[in-house]
Amino acid sequence: MNQKVKYIRTDEEFRNFIGEIDNLEEAILLAHTYGYQLDTELKASQYKKIENGYQLRLMKYHQYPLSKELIDIKIQKDGFIKTRSLGIYKKGREAVD
């Protein structure tokens, strides 16, 4: 038995560590490695189970110009991720919670 401690140093290594996406928590973790986040706005914190994975609506935060973008994300069990912008829903000071 190999008892050597291994380290995860990159997002790609973390994605490989997660492996197959078996639940919502893993889908959200995977999306987070690409910069997508949950938001206090309900429209940017939606999910549903779909065939072979999950569909999420999360937020992408932009610092310049300050804004929040709504992103539709489909994550397959094998970790394949497909995204589509649904547009900016908050700008300027409104984008800071």
Q: Please give the radius of gyration in angstroms.
A: 15 Å
Structural class: alpha+beta
Level of helix content?
Answer: 10-25%
Quaternary state of the chains: single chain
Order of helices and strands: HHEEEEE
Number of strands: 5
How many domains, as an integer?
Answer: 1
Q: What is the overall pLDDT average?
A: 93
Distance between the termini: 48 Å
Quick one: overall form?
globular
Unreliable spans: none
Helix count from the secondary structure assignment: 2
How large is the share of residues in beta strands? 35-45%
Largest sheet: 5 strands, antiparallel
Describe this protein with a few key phrases.
97 residues, alpha+beta, five-stranded antiparallel beta sheet, 2 helices
Structural commentary:
This protein is an alpha+beta fold and 97 residues long. The protein has one domain. Helix content is 19%, strand content 39%. It contains two helices and five strands. It has helices at residues 11-18, 24-33, and strands at residues 36-37, 46-50, 53-62, 67-76, 81-91. Strands 1, 2, 3, 4 and 5 form a five-stranded antiparallel beta sheet that branches. The longest helix is centred in the N-terminal third of the chain and has 10 residues, at 24-33. It is globular and about 55 Å long. The model has no long low-confidence stretch (mean pLDDT 93).
